[in-house]
């Protein structure tokens, strides 16, 4: 465009845009909605992915879970006659530092179900869990009030419990439950501690609806001496989790006399595998949301094409004049492209502002996490939208024959 | 005005046909002309005589169906679109009946525009645009937009815009067609003045009064030259 200069280009574009303000602002609005929805929806996708990830991480990244594969917990025997349930002996074997150097600790878990009452209030926890004191560390369960019961309590089978916040609220409201005696499954137990709330993990499970008691007490008074529900194992740190899983598998196969290659009657899971599958599904969600948003950006782009076609038609005569006084094709093309890009950038900038603004609020129960990439991408794409969708009308304008353009009324 | 300079315009056997077959209209039927540097030519003819078609071809806005056209030794048929835009920019200045200024753009910016398309720097552009406006007597109207000027003033801005690039010829298509008697007189004086300064001026008109201002009159009828008279003013 030679010495056409910014001022002239700017003036041309500004004249086109201000010629019909309502029309221009509606076009800008189209791009604005597209760009802001790209930002907000990807932020919502990212936010929900992060929430799921954090929920899983709360369970502990070093955690390994050993479960019976013949059916869940105490029902395993009935569903698979060859399968041997998990036992206290298995849990003890996993705590051997000689054969399992990467295992920090392993705790048996025996879940019972039942209702707890205090006075005329009641609460039905998702699990009444019997375990060892080491479980608290293995399961990443910090305590809020009171104290953990100890291994002495396990040995003696004392009726002491730690309760989750949901149970505490159900039975005591805002009062302190410490040292109060409640009845669980008909047994009188003393509350010695309240766990910190774990919050929702994104699933249907309420991690705070739990009562934890010494396993010896649960066996004696509630569930009997059947097989365990699962064994909670903690690796020494995140990087040794894989090694620890191998050690657990070796020990468990020895314990259950599983021959190499035969189907095991237990499963070893860890958070990483759960995390991986949930990350995949939340990534899919993000892509899906981004795709929806991209469509609305496309619609915004078509709006630009439409308005530029109108602008070209309205200015046909002017194009003719410009060509007659020596405007080369490139100058006309540039001027219309700048006009289209200005429109789309106005939409892009305000769309980024709106999108980032909306993302400060909780959307659909998710705290959105704005990624810089999506902001930059949306912005660049909005500029490109002007270039691509404005390109065709601009080229049409530039290719007009001067004589025809001049005759246009 | 050297006798050895090539003619500004040389056309040979130009025809122009619009449409095809039975509906074909022969706007020009073999027109040959030479116009020398510094001439003041009026091309006359009734409506439908082909004079506007001839003007469009001379201005490189349209291409002839047949025949050759040289501007200063440049064969127009050999030029591509980009080169034609350079020819229009550097060799031709247009003045239209309906002024054809760019709306909502100041007089000075209108006059600067052809220079901008040539790539002249902003400061140089300003200087030359002001000089051109002063030469048409509108040195103080540079900031005004077309709708703030009278018809005669708008046409003077258009003449300034045509002059500012120092073209080989100024092509004026019915330049006084939309003006009152007083403005017509002013515009004709202006065309005289710029011709006296050395520019070739070609005026298309159907008004005898305008033609009398020129020093050569070419009359077209039914797409052919029927009269070509030169006189000394």
UniProtKB/TrEMBL annotation, chain A:
- The record's principal subcellular location, in a coarse class, is membrane
Task: Describe the location of the MacB-like periplasmic core domain by residue ranges.
Answer: 24-250
Respond yes or no to whether keyword Transmembrane is given for this record: yes
Entry GO MF terms:
transmembrane transporter activity
In this protein, which residues make up the domain named ABC3 transporter permease C-terminal? 291-400
What is the topology of this protein in the membrane according to its UniProt annotation?
A: Multi-pass membrane protein
Q: Which keywords does UniProt give here? A: Cell membrane, Membrane, Transmembrane, Transmembrane helix
Question: Transmembrane region positions?
Answer: 25-44, 287-310, 331-358, 370-392
Q: Does the keyword NADP apply?
A: no
Its GO CC terms? plasma membrane
Where, subcellularly, is it found? Cell membrane
Show the coiled coil region(s). none
- Would you identify the family this protein belongs to, as annotated? Belongs to the ABC-4 integral membrane protein family.
Protein name per its UniProtKB record: Unannotated protein
Q: Which organism is it from?
A: freshwater metagenome
Automatic annotation (TrEMBL), chain B:
Transmembrane stretches, start-end: none
Q: Which Pfam families match?
A: ABC_tran
ABC transporter domain: which residues?
Answer: 9-232
Statement: the UniProt record of this protein carries the keyword Transport:
yes
Carries keyword ATP-binding? yes
Name any GO cellular component annotation.
Answer: membrane protein complex
- Which UniProt keywords are listed? ATP-binding, Nucleotide-binding, Transport
UniProt GO molecular function: ATP binding; ATP hydrolysis activity; transmembrane transporter activity
Which InterPro entries would you find in this protein's record?
Answer: AAA+_ATPase (IPR003593), ABC_transporter-like_ATP-bd (IPR003439), ABC_transporter-like_CS (IPR017871), ABC_transpr_LolD-like (IPR015854), MacB-like_ATP-bd (IPR017911), P-loop_NTPase (IPR027417)
Instruction: Show the PANTHER family listed in the entry.
Output: ABC TRANSPORTER ATP-BINDING PROTEIN, IMPORT ATP-BINDING PROTEIN
**Protein name per its UniProtKB record:** Unannotated protein
Q: What is the lineage of its organism?
A: unclassified sequences, metagenomes, ecological metagenomes
């Amino acid at each position: 465009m030679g010495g056409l200069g910014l001022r002239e280009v700017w003036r041309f574009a500004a004249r086109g845009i201000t010629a019909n303000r309502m029309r221009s602002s509606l076009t800008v609005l189209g791009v604005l909605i597209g760009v802001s929805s790209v930002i907000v929806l990807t932020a919502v996708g990212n936010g929900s992915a992060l929430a799921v990830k954090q929920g899983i991480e709360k369970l502990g990244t070093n955690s390994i879970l050993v479960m019976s594969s013949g059916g869940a917990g105490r029902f395993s025997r009935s569903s698979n006659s060859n399968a041997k349930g998990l036992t206290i002996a298995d849990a003890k074997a996993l705590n051997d530092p000689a054969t399992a150097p990467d295992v920090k600790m392993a705790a048996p878990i025996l879940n019972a179900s039942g209702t707890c009452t205090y006075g005329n209030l009641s609460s039905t926890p998702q699990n009444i869990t019997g375990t060892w004191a080491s479980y608290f560390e293995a399961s990443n369960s910090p305590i809020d009030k009171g104290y953990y019961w100890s291994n002495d309590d396990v040995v003696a089978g004392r009726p002491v419990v730690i309760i989750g916040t949901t149970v505490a609220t159900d039975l005591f409201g805002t009062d302190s439950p410490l040292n109060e005696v409640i009845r669980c499954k008909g047994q009188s137990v003393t509350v010695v501690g309240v766990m910190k709330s774990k919050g929702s993990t994104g699933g249907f499970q309420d991690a705070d609806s739990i009562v934890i008691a010494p396993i010896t007490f649960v066996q004696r008074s509630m569930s009997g001496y059947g097989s365990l529900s699962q064994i909670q194992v903690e690796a020494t740190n995140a990087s040794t989790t894989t090694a620890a899983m191998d050690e657990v598998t070796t020990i468990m196969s020895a314990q259950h006399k599983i021959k190499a290659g035969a189907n095991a009657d237990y499963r070893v899971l860890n958070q990483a595998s759960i995390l991986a599958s949930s990350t995949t599904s939340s990534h899919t969600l993000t892509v899906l949301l981004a795709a929806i948003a991209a469509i609305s950006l496309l619609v915004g782009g078509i709006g630009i094409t439409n308005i530029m076609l109108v602008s070209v038609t309205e200015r046909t005569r002017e194009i003719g004049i410009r060509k007659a006084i020596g405007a080369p094709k490139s100058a006309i093309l540039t001027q219309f492209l700048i006009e289209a890009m200005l429109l789309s950038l106005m939409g892009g900038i305000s769309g980024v502002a709106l999108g980032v603004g909306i993302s400060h609020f909780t959307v659909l129960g998710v705290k959105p996490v704005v990624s810089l990439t999506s902001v930059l991408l949306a912005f660049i794409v909005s500029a490109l939208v002007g270039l691509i969708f404005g390109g065709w009308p601009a080229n049409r304008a530039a290719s007009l024959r001067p004589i025809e353009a001049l005759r246009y009324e | 005005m050297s006798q050895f300079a090539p003619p500004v315009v040389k056309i040979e056997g130009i025809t122009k046909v619009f449409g095809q077959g039975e509906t074909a209209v022969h706007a020009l039927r073999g027109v040959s002309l030479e116009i020398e540097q510094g001439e003041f030519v009026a091309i006359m003819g009734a409506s439908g005589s082909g004079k506007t078609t001839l003007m469009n071809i001379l201005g490189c806005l349209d291409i002839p169906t047949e025949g050759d056209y040289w501007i200063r030794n440049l064969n127009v048929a050999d030029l591509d679109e980009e080169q034609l835009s350079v020819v229009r920019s550097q060799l031709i200045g247009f003045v239209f009946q309906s002024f054809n200024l760019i709306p909502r753009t100041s007089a000075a910016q209108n006059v600067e525009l052809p220079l901008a398309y040539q790539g002249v720097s902003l400061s140089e552009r300003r200087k030359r645009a002001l000089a051109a406006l002063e030469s048409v007597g509108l040195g103080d109207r540079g900031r005004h937009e077309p709708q703030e000027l009278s018809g005669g003033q708008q046409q003077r801005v258009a003449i300034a815009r045509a002059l500012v690039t120092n073209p080989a010829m100024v092509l004026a298509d019915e330049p006084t067609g939309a003006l009152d008697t007083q403005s017509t007189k002013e515009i004709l004086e202006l065309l005289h003045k710029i011709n006296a300064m050395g520019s070739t001026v070609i005026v298309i008109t159907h008004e005898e009064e305008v033609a009398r201002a020129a020093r050569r009159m070419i009359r077209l009828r039914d797409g052919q030259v029927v009269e070509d008279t030169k006189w000394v003013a």
